[in-house]
Amino acid sequence: MSLSEKLSNIEGLQYNEAIARMCGDEELYRSALELSSQQIPSIIAELDGQLDGGDMPGFAISVHGLKGALNTIGAVVLAGFADSLCKSARAGDDGAVSEGWKEFRPQLESFVDKISTL
């Protein structure tokens, strides 16, 4: 089964867009997915700590970086969610960030579970 077929069941993942960013190099894309599956759990923990500590500027910076990483690997739906959280954090809307994170976090964890089994 090809990588694109394995990824086809992951909602919101744009294989063609991501592979284009990797100059058509599927092995590079596979490596990027593997690296993401290893790093995103640490980013989740960092974001949890920033949110718990009321560090909205730090949260905005971290979630902005996550957005870029998600876009790079073609997870455009999750990247859009991260962008929304980033904007809320920059605006100082703690309530929107807290509620958004409660919704986004499990989706992000589910995504990591899916890409870590490739």
Average of the residue pLDDT scores: 96
Q: Any idea what the shape is? A: elongated
**Within the CATH hierarchy, at the fold level, what is the topology?**
Four Helix Bundle (Hemerythrin (Met), subunit A)
Poorly predicted ranges? none
Terminal Cα span: 11 Å
The percentage helix is over 70%
Number of strands: 0
Q: Main β-sheet: number of strands, strand sense, barrel status?
A: none
Strand portion? under 5%
Summary keywords:
118 residues, mainly alpha, Four Helix Bundle (Hemerythrin (Met), subunit A), 6 helices, elongated
Provide an overview of this structure.
The chain has a single domain (3-115), classed as Four Helix Bundle (Hemerythrin (Met), subunit A), CATH 1.20.120. The chain starts with a helix and ends with a helix. The longest helix is centred in the N-terminal third of the chain and has 27 residues, at 26-52. It is mostly helical. The mean pLDDT is 96. The chain is built from 6 helices and no strands.
Question: How would you summarize what this structure contains?
Answer:
This protein is mainly alpha-helical and 118 residues long.
Chain-wise SSE layout:
Blueprint: H1 3-7, H2 15-21, H3 26-52, H4 56-72, H5 76-90, H6 94-115
Helix pairs in contact: 3-4, 3-6, 4-5, 5-6
